Amino acid sequence: MDLAFYYFLILGFFIGIISGFFGIGGGIILTPLLLILGYAPSVAIATSLMLTLGSTVSGTISHLRLKNVVWRDSLVVGGVGIIGSTIATPLVLRLEEVNGAHLVISIVYIGLLLYFANKFLRPKATTGEQTGWKNRYLALAFTGLFAGFISSLLGVSGGFIITPLLVGIVGYELKRAVGTSIASALLIVLSGLVNYTVASTNIDILVGIMLIVGALLGAPIGAKQLTHFESPFVKKYLGIFYLTVAVSVLLEIIGWNVASLSVLVALSLIFLLTLLIYSRRRTNG
Question: Which terminus of the chain is more exposed, N or C, with fewer CB under 10 A?
Fold first, then answer.
């Protein structure tokens, strides 16, 4: 086996730690990183979907055991999400033909990352009221269509979109929203991966497997470290994380690839050092 494949095992391991700590899909980290490293957009997306498929399978099994999945709703969201995914895939491939996919994907990434960074970093006033849509199934269908489109456009699970929408416009409590979101994302990610495979995207299966194995090894470590931190700190750190990744993607767009990669490496090292320091303090204290 080529030594380069072991690098992807290590990369998957570190992505797994970050994903396990923050509870986010690895695709939101992996896709921009692969673009920075020079991968074609369709290959970067398909590879990220492979990594995400592994995490959504394990996540779905876990939440099934906890009885957090509302199957009827997850089938609606996931089923309509397949339509959104099917719309996005040929769009990405068409943009790739005219050399526009990289730019479009990067701009959408920056927009979403800045939006969520703002949500985590800026305090918001809470009224204690939730305004759900009157038509429940219309809300579920909208959630699935939007998440499916974003999933295959960016190579992410879509869960970071599904969960807040289930809470905000469907009226879910958070625990059930997370479980149902992951089960829905499983259908969406699987359909996206199939769509890119059928379109003859040059996916390196071995790279995907190494990333999945690494992520499965790293995720429990990140999840365990989460117990050492208070929720407000985690939310603020996640906001900083999203903001830094957005800056990295912006630097890559303007052609500063070395600076872009350096920002991601520095962010990862600081994050891992923070976990190590706090973990030792907790152990010694």
Answer: C
Type of residue found at 29: I
Q: Which domain holds residue 28?
A: 3-283
- Tokens representing 69 are 């999945």
Burial class (CB in 10 A: 0-12, 13-18, 19+), 64: middle
Query: Exposed, middle or buried, 128 (CB in 10 Å: 0-12/13-18/19+)?
Result: exposed
Nearest Cα to 183, choosing from 163, 154, 203? 163
The 10 Å CB-count burial string (b at 16+, else e) for 148-171 is: bbbbbbbbbbbbbbbbbbbbbbbe
pLDDT for the residue 1: 55
Question: Going by C-beta distance under 8 Å and a sequence separation of 6 or more, which residues neighbour residue 221?
Answer: 16, 17, 20
How do residues 261-273 score in pLDDT, each as one tens digit?
Answer: 888 888 878 887 8
Q: What is the pTM of this model?
A: 0.79
Name the token pair of 8.
Answer: 């992807």
pLDDT at 127 over 60: no
Q: How many domains does the chain have?
A: 1
Tokens of 125: 């006033």
Mean of pLDDT over the chain:
82
Q: Given a cut of 90, is residue 220 above it in pLDDT?
A: no
Helix (H, G, I), strand (E, B) or coil at 37: coil
Contact 208, 43 (CB under 8 A): no
Reading phi first (left if > 0) and then psi (alpha if -120 to 50, else beta), residue 200 is in left
Say what the pLDDT of residue 142 is.
95
| pLDDT tens per residue, range 100-117 | 888 888 888 888 888 878
Residue 282 has a pLDDT of 63
